[in-house]
From TrEMBL:
<dbReference type="GO" id="GO:0008270">
    <property type="term" value="F:zinc ion binding"/>
</dbReference>
<dbReference type="Pfam" id="PF17900">
    <property type="entry name" value="Peptidase_M1_N"/>
</dbReference>
<dbReference type="InterPro" id="IPR014782">
    <property type="entry name" value="Peptidase_M1_dom"/>
</dbReference>
<dbReference type="Pfam" id="PF01433">
    <property type="entry name" value="Peptidase_M1"/>
</dbReference>
<feature type="domain" description="Peptidase M1 alanyl aminopeptidase Ig-like fold">
    <location>
        <begin position="450"/>
        <end position="540"/>
    </location>
</feature>
<dbReference type="InterPro" id="IPR001930">
    <property type="entry name" value="Peptidase_M1"/>
</dbReference>
<dbReference type="InterPro" id="IPR035414">
    <property type="entry name" value="Peptidase_M1_pepN_Ig-like"/>
</dbReference>
<keyword id="KW-0479">Metal-binding</keyword>
<dbReference type="GO" id="GO:0008237">
    <property type="term" value="F:metallopeptidase activity"/>
</dbReference>
<comment type="function">
    <text>Aminopeptidase N is involved in the degradation of intracellular peptides generated by protein breakdown during normal growth as well as in response to nutrient starvation.</text>
</comment>
<dbReference type="InterPro" id="IPR038438">
    <property type="entry name" value="PepN_Ig-like_sf"/>
</dbReference>
<dbReference type="InterPro" id="IPR037144">
    <property type="entry name" value="Peptidase_M1_pepN_C_sf"/>
</dbReference>
<keyword id="KW-0645">Protease</keyword>
<keyword id="KW-0862">Zinc</keyword>
<comment type="similarity">
    <text>Belongs to the peptidase M1 family.</text>
</comment>
<dbReference type="InterPro" id="IPR024601">
    <property type="entry name" value="Peptidase_M1_pepN_C"/>
</dbReference>
<dbReference type="InterPro" id="IPR012779">
    <property type="entry name" value="Peptidase_M1_pepN"/>
</dbReference>
Length: 871
């Protein structure tokens, strides 16, 4: 497919109900090594609300059609027609039974959509439009049917046969085969269908619901991974209890199953009662998984479980409503993780993702509101905008309504639309009905793209003790009307105490507004956008002394971190200017002393301290430059790290030693301690003085060799691999030999090397493509090497030779025919070409053009390249 044969664009304005409904479907699978036979029997009826065509059009891709029967009568070839993407049956009755036989080859399905094989096991991924690769069907989320599924397979090869719902029948058959029938009592769209068949083992547990029902909880994995499931099971049970206590939502089936597979395009999938997970978000032991892995597993397990209500019991009417389930459920999993761990650190991490990734998306050619108005390929809209910005918009509703009203709104929403395919408007209506708050203007967040900016100026009148804040909102999208923005603000007096009476949520609804505070003393600091109350860019010109004061004193922990980031950004932006003018770089002693106070403050939460000590990321710095200069950003950050290592070496060593673990635990406190310890080690490794460098290397080597957990081992490995050559090479070899049989750990090994810089960095990445452990058909492996290099190694990927751009285009072209979904996602860094200098722009566009001219370009890749080239 080329631009001359562009695929159709789908528009929200064109939505209509389907001409036909499907009330129930019986699926019969005969799983074979060379071919799988699928027989579907559907109860179909005309949609009486429409007076349209009597032609039934079903979706289907890559299928071999066997037979079609209506009311048990076989249709002849002249009574239906088949295209590459559909089955047409003219003049069907108003109500009838439709039986279709298809044949598919899951073992050849590298797209990992529909039914495919992973590590010898059958599994499915049907969201968004994978079901059409299994059988002909109305593959759209507003068609909801009851599913009954029978699976037949060789019992010795596939002893475990799973599908949605509850098991209702099992049989041993001839020729060593067996069958299991599953019945799901709840209507669902076909994207929630799931099937798994394989030689798997499971751990079992039970959960007693708030109404004293006993739920059978199971996690299925390959036998060699059975000892890595305990954390996932604990996370599941925590999620179930939390959703009952927080939102009153009880699980509705008798069994809840999770299956971990190695080959998966996404993180996990919430199929009703049978969640299929990327093994990365299930498997964990302290020696194989980092603290971040453990937190992510808990969050993703929670996310998919919470979908049982916000996505399954109430689903989305069409794919333009995707944020209805994803944004809402991300908000729910963020709240869950905050309650299970450090709320402030969780907020910092979530905002980091938003500001470094989503803001860039808002400013680029893929910019879209959380409810887009058109798409070519829906897989391209599983974006940080739909998910993360969508969650921020739900968070703002929570802020505006308050906890109790929000909970009541959720109750109304679930009760009103249970068993239905709903819209974002249905959700907003429920929130208005619960609170009597008019959200008319707030709805603009759903339909307007771009990141609003708040420009704030303060004026203090000493004679009146009056402090005024002038707030102006604007957007890079000039046609946007003013948003409704909840702005959290408070005051901190000169002694560092918060003036509780000043704390408030201000509704910013106009292009310009003034906030006034009475009886305010001079030198009172303003704490604004507390806990990041809205996904906006804030331009509030505080000087470095004011920022440092808030770093030390703000009662809002998010704002302490945020002010440290702003202070670091101010310092480094000035250094970048010096770098451009070829001046000698000098790091402000004031900044060094500010970080020193954070480092030695024993009263400060260690996880928060680690976040505050982290310099602004290269991505965040780049967003604050009119033209991203990757070389200047890299050199300035490295200079800052080296200077801080020199000036604070004794403090880093002392804090590092004080954070040694006596015994490994997975508590928030212990994770914070490891986080602070390892950021100290990373600074120490930057030292350029001989004695200090030798000390740092010895400490990193000792940590690597004696680590009791993967967090400490991989941190030491990264330090040695990134900052030493001989020692780094030795530990990389040792690490591979130690973990060669654990694919998830080897993903980390690839990632460490993909993010290294230096003379031979790019050549090392190229060589790793030929490594025995690398497989272009395994998404996790591609993400750990290619994705990490292109998205987390800016100075090497954007090398002035253009070699990084050609490297990425080569990979995308190879993946276009095997896994276009992964190919399209990898391509995203290239479409940001407008943010860079002219030479890089030309090279990036040339590679985009090259990709666009690839024969048989997949819809996924076509849409990204077309938007990228259009700018």
């Amino acid at each position: 497919m080329t631009q001359d044969t562009a695929p159709n664009t789908i528009y929200l304005k064109d939505y209509t109900q389907p001409q036909y409904w499907i009330d129930s479907i019986n699926l019969h699978f005969e799983l074979g090594e060379d071919e799988t036979r699928v027989v579907s029997e559907m109860e179909v009826r005309r949609n009486t609300e429409l007076n349209g065509s009597r032609i039934l059009e079903l979706d289907g891709e890559n299928l071999v059609l066997g037979s079609v029967l209506i009311n048990e009568k076989a249709l002849s070839d002249g009574e239906f027609s088949v295209t590459d993407e559909s089955l047409w049956i003219p003049d069907v009755p108003d109500s009838f039974t439709l039986q279709i036989e298809t044949f598919i080859k899951p073992q050849l399905n590298t797209s990992l959509e529909g039914l495919y094989k992973s590590s010898g096991n059958f599994c499915t991924q049907c969201e968004a439009q994978g079901f059409r690769k299994i059988t002909y069907y109305l593959d759209r989320p507003d068609v909801m049917a009851k599913f009954t599924t029978t699976i037949v397979a060789d019992k010795s090869k596939y002893p475990v046969l799973l599908s949605n719902g509850n098991p209702v029948d099992t049989n041993d058959l001839d020729d060593g085969k067996h069958s299991v029938t599953w019945e799901d009592p709840f209507k669902k769209p076909c994207y929630l269908f799931a099937l798994v068949a394989g030689d798997l083992e499971c751990i079992k547990d039970t959960f007693i619901t708030m109404n004293k029902r006993e739920i059978d909880c199971r996690i299925y994995v390959e036998a060699h991974n059975i000892d890595k499931c305990d954390h996932a099971m604990r996370s599941l049970k925590k999620s179930m209890r939390w959703d009952e206590e927080t939102f009153g939502r009880e699980y509705d089936l008798d069994i809840y199953m999770i299956v971990a597979v190695d080959d998966f395009n996404m993180g996990a999938m919430e199929n009703k009662g049978l969640n299929v997970f990327n093994s990365k978000y299930v498997l964990a032991r302290p020696d194989t998984a980092t603290d971040t892995d453990f937190i992510n597993i808990e969050a993703v397990i929670g996310h998919e479980y919470f979908h049982n209500w916000s996505g399954n019991r109430v689903t989305c009417r069409d794919w333009f409503q995707l944020t209805l389930k994803e944004g809402l459920t991300v908000f729910r999993d963020q709240q869950f993780t905050s309650d299970m761990n450090s709320a402030s650190v969780k907020r910092i991490d979530d905002v980091n993702v938003l500001r470094t990734r989503q803001f860039a998306e808002d400013a680029g050619p893929m910019s879209h509101p959380i409810q887009p108005d058109s798409y070519v390929e829906i897989n391209n809209f599983y974006t940080v905008t739909v998910y993360n910005k969508g969650a921020e918009i739900i968070r703002m509703i929570h802020t505006l309504l308050g906890k109790e009203n929000f909970r009541q709104g959720m109750d109304i929403y679930f009760e009103r639309h249970d068993g239905e395919a709903a819209t974002t408007e249905d959700f907003i209506n429920a929130m208005e009905d619960a609170s009597d708050i008019d959200l008319t203007q707030f709805r603009r967040w759903y339909h307007q793209a771009g990141t609003p900016q708040l420009d704030v100026q303060s004026e203090y009148k000493a004679d009146e003790k009056r402090l005024s804040l002038s707030v102006k909102q604007s957007s890079e999208t000039k046609t946007n009307k003013p948003f409704h923005i909840p702005l959290s603000v408070s005051l901190i007096d000169s002694d560092g105490s918060e003036l509780k009476s000043a704390a408030q949520i201000v509704d910013i609804t106009e292009a310009e507004q003034v906030i006034e505070f009475e009886d305010v003393e001079d030198n009172t600091a303003v704490s604004i956008l507390r806990n990041y109350s809205a996904p906006v860019k804030l331009n509030y010109a505080l000087n470095n002394e004011q920022l440092a004061f808030l770093v030390a004193n703000d009662s809002d922990e998010f704002n302490r971190w945020n002010c440290a980031q702003q202070l670091g950004l101010n310092i480094m932006m000035a250094l970048i200017e010096d770098y451009h003018q070829k001046k000698t770089l000098n790091l402000d002693a004031f900044y060094i002393s500010t970080l020193k106070q954070v480092l030695i403050d024993e009263s400060l939460d260690k996880a928060l301290a680690a976040r505050i000590l982290s310099l602004p990321s290269e991505d965040y710095m780049g967003q604050n430059l009119p033209v991203i200069d990757v070389d200047a950003i890299y050199q300035v950050r490295e200079f800052c790290k080296k200077t801080l290592a020199f000036e604070l070496m004794d403090d880093f060593v002392a804090v590092y030693k004080s954070c040694q673990d006596d015994e490994y635990t997975l508590t928030p406190q212990a994770m914070g301690q490891r986080s602070l310890k390892n950021i100290c080690l990373s600074y120490m490794m930057c030292s350029e003085t001989e004695t200090a460098r030798k000390t740092a290397i010895e400490m990193a080597q000792h940590q690597y060799k004696n680590a009791s957990n993967m967090t400490d081992q991989i941190s030491a490995l990264r330090c040695l691999a990134h900052y030493t050559e001989q020692e780094g090479g030795q530990v990389l070899d040792d690490f591979y030999q130690q973990w060669a049989k654990d694919s998830l750990v080897i993903d980390k090994w690839f990632m460490v090397q993909a993010t290294a810089t230096g003379t031979n960095a790019f050549q090392s990445v190229q060589a790793l493509l030929e490594h025995d452990a690398f497989d272009l058909n395994v998404p996790n492996r591609v993400r750990s090497l290619v994705g990490a290099f292109t998205q987390a190694n800016a100075v090497e990927f954007h090398h002035m030779s253009g070699q990084g751009y050609q490297f990425l285009a080569d990979i995308v072209i190879k993946l276009n025919t095997t896994n276009p979904q992964i190919a399209a996602r990898l391509l995203l860094p290239l479409i940001q070409w407008k943010s860079y200098d002219v030479n890089r722009q030309l090279m990036m566009k040339a590679q985009l053009q090259r990709v666009s001219e690839t024969p048989d370009l997949a819809k996924d890749v076509f849409e990204i390249t077309a938007k990228g080239l259009a700018g």
